[in-house]
Amino acid sequence: MRLNLEVAVDSPSGFKAAIAGGAQRIELCTALSVGGLTPSAGLMRLASETATPVRAMIRPRLGGFVYTPTEYDVMRRDIDAVREAGLAGIVIGASLMTGELDADLLHRLADHAQGLDMALHRAIDLTPDPLGALETAIALGFDTILTSGRTPRAIDGLETLRALTAQAANRIEIMPGGGITADNAQQILEATGVRWLHASCAEPLPVIDKAELRLGFVTPDARDTSHTAVLRLTEVLGDLSRRLKSAI
Which CATH entry fits the domain spanning 4-247: 3.90.226.10, 3.40.50.960, 3.20.20.380, 1.20.1050.10? Predict the structure, then answer.
């Protein structure tokens, strides 16, 4: 009955903050401001030094998830880098122009990633039929689906999240993500019955150098993973886990 937290990080400091705050798993990225891109080889190597499971985002560019043959080749090479770094798994997604999952491309990527854990990312939130996409993900061998319920924030997609969780029937992990904080985690968990949550736990940088801002090296809304925010969320999940256990 344990409730778990996956934290998405895109920097060395964010990675260390998530580990120190007690995250049960890490999603490793760069550029979380656009939903996360493939992390660098150096960041993967840093992440391999912890016992906490780490999954790396495989997304070669910002924007949607309709990929060219060249981008597919880059994704295959990035999967090789994840395996070489010794990380636990990957987070991938691919779409057709219709918004449906690109089952053929995902099959080829999954075949290339054999032996690694696989999570389907929020490409599922673009699909016209998320329940059908769930069955596709199961057939392709994914073990997790990250979704906000087809809304920007998971708290606003509870109906879809409930439907996905019910249809999944423990065949695949449904993991809500998108705007999750210590303040709304309990409501999402109680409404859906899931056992994993996904959050960035990011807060604005306390100090932004004016020269760096003027030259475009940092944006005024720059954020990084906060140890305090991770800790608050893990404490909420820990308290709820204990309450669930005592109720059995």
Answer: 3.20.20.380
